[in-house]
Amino acid sequence: KVGINGFGRIGRLVLRAALKAGVSVVAVNDPFIDVDYMVYMFKYDSTHGRYHGSVAAKDGKLVIDGHPIAVHQERDPSAIPWSADGAEYVVESTGVFTTIEKASAHL
């Protein structure tokens, strides 16, 4: 069970790769992108093309192919409720938390 911090180019590619590999993504955090824009950006990728599965926003969650993914908009990684969402691993894809000290805020 994976959480993704940052839903820019890298975060979206991580999500696509995880879905293709059958990895469960349980949460996405990005303080600058709301869930409706996440739907649009994931569905229509200028480099990798259109996602051919179903993508929607429902009850504040990103729902891809029927699987709900919690969405958070926290700037502080220590405030993201990864464990409450069931995340066992977190992919840091913002490019901001690049040291062990900074990235450990996700723990």
TrEMBL record:
Its EC number is 1.2.1.12. SMART domains: Gp_dh_N (SM00846). Residues 1-107 form the Glyceraldehyde 3-phosphate dehydrogenase NAD(P) binding domain. GO terms for biological process: glycolytic process. The keyword Repressor does not apply. The keyword Oxidoreductase applies. It catalyses: D-glyceraldehyde 3-phosphate + phosphate + NAD(+) = (2R)-3-phospho-glyceroyl phosphate + NADH + H(+). Pathway: Carbohydrate degradation; glycolysis; pyruvate from D-glyceraldehyde 3-phosphate: step 1/5. InterPro entries: GlycerAld/Erythrose_P_DH, GlycerAld_3-P_DH_NAD(P)-bd, NAD(P)-bd_dom_sf. Homotetramer. This is glyceraldehyde-3-phosphate dehydrogenase (phosphorylating). It comes from Glycera tridactyla.
